[in-house]
């Protein structure tokens, strides 16, 4: 079969909705300054869908630093990959700052978070090694796993008993191959908002020999006393062997970094294919990352504001009888029993009549009879925003409970 003919018949799990939902439910266009209130299809909406946790996207001094850096360097410098011609003392400065902030010996600045994680996994293991990982790990972890030609064992989400059983299986294999074991999980799971059980996983080090890699994209800047992440939150940051974070969330930017011992970081500098064969993070974005990290450290009140909003939102929704699952982070999922047709009408109602924009997740990400609305509180939101949203969700829930949303799309028209 011709490949082009094949993709006409098989659009993929999410692509099946493209003809119906493109531009509204998928690839929507939010316009205006990044803020709690933006424009969607010409109407102002209260936006709960941006990972701008600490509200840095439009902090005046950060915007000023971004503009000055772009004016001075443009978006090309330094030109080339880090190993060849794209290295600078500015990149090194960020790495020194990041390593101190997350309590590691050294760090390496990455041009993108997603590709960085894929490459880290690829570089850290060979065919003799075994990977043990959480079933709900992010797609970048899954793509990294696909490159691994050795054994890999998955355990059900946050099931530590199963994790230990997989470690036992892995241990038997590496005793024969002479390899090692790498355990991978997330600090904060970005969809459901629950935390990886870092304390319980690190406790297993007393019985098994393995190294521990944590993807803390949603935990960096939001978790722990200083915002150093989920390892700090659990008091086990020293037991996290490889710490990874992106700039796409709390830092409101592009890029990421990995932190570990000096030996490991030096190894990764010379073996991360996504960095060796791709352009380095531009100087303007690197200076922006430095400014953001300085701001986070100098303004702990931003994290405090975030948690005030997150606690108020989650408390209000739970008291209204809404199901938020097991979230322990600012990520606020709202689970409702609903099929895709009803969910379609519900989201339309929420956006058009209540003026609330949040992300919607349907099958195959969640079960067929469940819809998840994901709200991301930020330090830029207000308690008035929370109050209005809770009241709106109470009305939405009532409509769902009373089957007021049609179970078909026959008359639906965007």
Write a compact overview of the structure shown:
The chain has 414 residues and is an alpha/beta fold. Helix content is 40%, strand content 15%. It has 2 domains: 3-58 and 301-401, Aspartate Aminotransferase, domain 1 (Alpha-Beta Complex), CATH 3.90.1150; 74-298, Type I PLP-dependent aspartate aminotransferase-like (Major domain) (Aspartate Aminotransferase, domain 2, 3-Layer(aba) Sandwich), CATH 3.40.640.
Describe this structure in words.
The structure is a single chain. This protein has helices at residues 3-9, 18-21, 60-73, 89-101, 113-124, 139-146, 160-177, 198-203, 230-234, 262-269, 273-276, 283-298, 301-319, 340-352, 383-401; strands at 30-31, 37-40, 43-47, 106-110, 130-134, 151-155, 181-186, 211-215, 242-246, 256-260, 332-337, 356-357, 359-361, 370-375. It has 15 helices and 14 strands. The model has no long low-confidence stretch (mean pLDDT 94). Helix content is 40%, strand content 15%. The radius of gyration is 22 Å and the shape is globular. The strands form 3 sheets. The chain has a 7-stranded mixed sheet with strand order 4-10-9-8-7-5-6, sandwiched between helices. The protein has a 4-stranded mixed sheet with strand order 1-2-3-12. Strands 11-14-13 form a 3-stranded antiparallel sheet. Strand 8 (211-215), helix 9 and strand 9 form a beta-alpha-beta unit. The protein has 414 residues and is an alpha/beta fold. It folds into 2 domains: 3-58 and 301-401, Aspartate Aminotransferase, domain 1; 74-298, 3-Layer(aba) Sandwich (Aspartate Aminotransferase, domain 2).
